[in-house]
Amino acid sequence: METTPAGLPFSFPFPDGFLWGASTAAHQIEGNNVNSDWWHREHAPDTTLPEPSGDACDSYHRWREDMDLLARLGFTDYRFSIEWARVEPAPGRFSKAEIAHYRRMVEGALERGLRPMVTLHHFTVPHWFAERGGWTAEGAIDLFERYVRATAPIIATGVRHVCTINEPNMIALAVAFRELGTEVAPVAGIPLLDEPTTDALIEAHHRARTALKSISPDLQVGWSVANQVYQALPGAEAATAAYSHPREDVFIEAARDDDWIGVQSYTRTRIGADGPLPAPPDAELTLTGWEFYPEATGHALRHTAALVGDVPLIVTENGIATADDSRRVAYYTGALTAVAAALEDGLDIHGYLAWSALDNYEWGSYRPTFGLIAVDPDTFVRTPKPSAAWLGGLARTGRLPRADL
After folding, report:
1. CATH number where 68 lies
2. Close Cβ partners of 237 (under 8 Å, ≥ 6 residues apart)
3. Global pTM?
4. Catalytic one among 83, 88, 98, 167?
5. For the chain, how many structural domains are there in total?
């Protein structure tokens, strides 16, 4: 029998009930999120962002089409986010219309056989929340908890998995970088995260978890962490552990009492005696400038499991920015081979959700194309890529096939 590079059969069977899906974020696909902090940042006179989000993929109006495509392709799960700035555009003023809109999305997913995973905060906050000082302002956590409770009509029924906050370590990193006068963080060499923001986000997550359980004890609550896959060169093990803890591990450890934790990785970061190193000179780079390294997912899963113990793992994001869809299939094949190997070794992994369902706004630019589905920027016509059919076919069979690499 032919085997994968990890020695597993190409027909490796994934567990029954495994989550096979794709992920999106509201600001990146909906368009015209005019009340958010990111919209204001995009349109500030001194912005350093290459381009604004604008209409994005117009998914605010075209979400049915997006779900139809995912369901037809064979996916069983869809992760999307609720936009806080739409639900609460002004302090204490909750929009019944927007709450109804997101409830229709939940019901629409269920009607199409897609299990909805709902993220409550995916990077953007209401402009008014940012203006009063963001996460470290007095009463900020109370305000987030109030918003979480206001989402009850959306998530109380029909939703099983709720993600409180997406990549909190990247939110704390963004604060640190703004203090340094830049908008974009490189893969390696990131500064120390803002500690007050770190502490606030962890408390906000724990408060949100309690609030969600009061909405429905059946909700499975977790959050997702950006895994940089810090790899120590010989002799740099202690330095790597010290580098990783405030930038990543503290957020993983905060999930020890959760129902699940989201693992999100795209590449690796090698650490030498003097700190992070760039990608090897002969490495293949993606459109984001990251090393093509699909094995990162396996390393991230194993590292997370070592820190959280028996908390179930879900790959809530994984993918590659490329214009060559054959490389996307190759990347998914490598990543899923690593997931399969981790399952074989006994890790409790409940799902794999690709980033992203659509080519979308990648926080400053449309150039990095992560999507399984291409979107025409003028007509918004959706065109599934071969990788979408490949991954959807895997979702249908629940078995890892051989790909022509």
Report:
1. 3.20.20.80
2. none
3. 0.95
4. 167
5. 1
